[in-house]
């Protein structure tokens, strides 16, 4: 029996390798031991260096070791990523009526300086993330600005693909704001598109505006209200229509295994309202679905396929997220359509300098086509 302890550098505890069961199994295999204790460094403490953490926990990791290791009195090896304990800077802490405690923090990772919004109820889940880059301002001072080419979530790429399927001056409704990262990117990429976003939590809107560079534009309209109430109210207005409606809102109650969207958003009256609000057959209804319960997932998919003649979906590689495309027009989706629009998005993002610095293109079209499932 072999055993070790692994210290996660500060700011990296949210990464897939450390925050998911599958990732930890990969970490275990890479460490080449039979048992591994994984150590996370608490946000509320300061740690001078890696050695001080090892000294403090030397006795604890022995207590957690298999009996054969304890009896042998062997020294337990500590592992980490290099010799750096990592850097974390708390920008602001706050309290939200809807989400509880939250923190905006900056960490230095492989992708550079990252600013993150974390809800303390789910401390290993990144709610929003931007990358900061340092530039010299007109006064010769170094300042940090939002790197608008950076998309931390894979599923955001496919939501931009959805916008490419719409008319140039489309009007889209996004339920769920977060840090405003998605809205900002869509606006920079499709600057004629009108965006209406609904966010229930005023604290989230405040954070997005102050710390995540939420764009102010005549084409962006934010409503601080309950998304369910907003949709039902909009459906009562005879001339209110949208070219795309997206549910990208997290579920505060994850007991059902459904993290996004809340089950209330998939009930009959809400979906009936959605059907009234989509403007025509060319319009789209989009769902960022995060569901770990197989039976519930299958029921949601069946429900959407029953309501919409055209259905397509793509699952993310390293996340549970699944992006679902729905349309009232039969045979709306095809691999040829997604290929053409995927290439268009790549050309558009290149022309607007929105391609991440470490990537040749925003979207791997070949990989997307291999993973896309279509039911039209």
Index terms:
376 residues, alpha/beta, Rossmann fold, 5-stranded antiparallel beta sheet, 32% helix, 27% strand, globular, methyltransferase, spermidine synthase activity, Spermi_synthase, SAM-dependent_MTases_sf, transferase
Could you characterize the architecture of this molecule?
- Keywords: Methyltransferase, Transferase.
- It comes from Cacopsylla melanoneura.
- It holds the Pfam family Spermine_synth.
- This is Methyltransferase-like protein 13.
- One of its GO terms (molecular function) is methyltransferase activity.
- The protein folds into three domains: 3-79, no CATH class; 88-146, no CATH class; 154-375, Rossmann fold, CATH 3.40.50.
- It has twelve helices and 17 strands.
- It starts with a strand and ends with a strand.
- Helix 8 (227-235) packs across helix 9.
- The longest helix is centred in the last third of the chain and has 17 residues, at 335-351.
- The protein is an alpha/beta fold.
- It is globular.
- Helix 6 (181-189) links the parallel strand 9 and strand 10.
- The strands form three sheets. Strands 9, 10, 11, 12, 13, 14, 15, 16 and 17 form a nine-stranded mixed sheet that branches. Strands 4-5-6-7-8 form a five-stranded antiparallel sheet, covered by helices on one side. It has a three-stranded parallel sheet with strand order 2-1-3, covered by helices on one side.
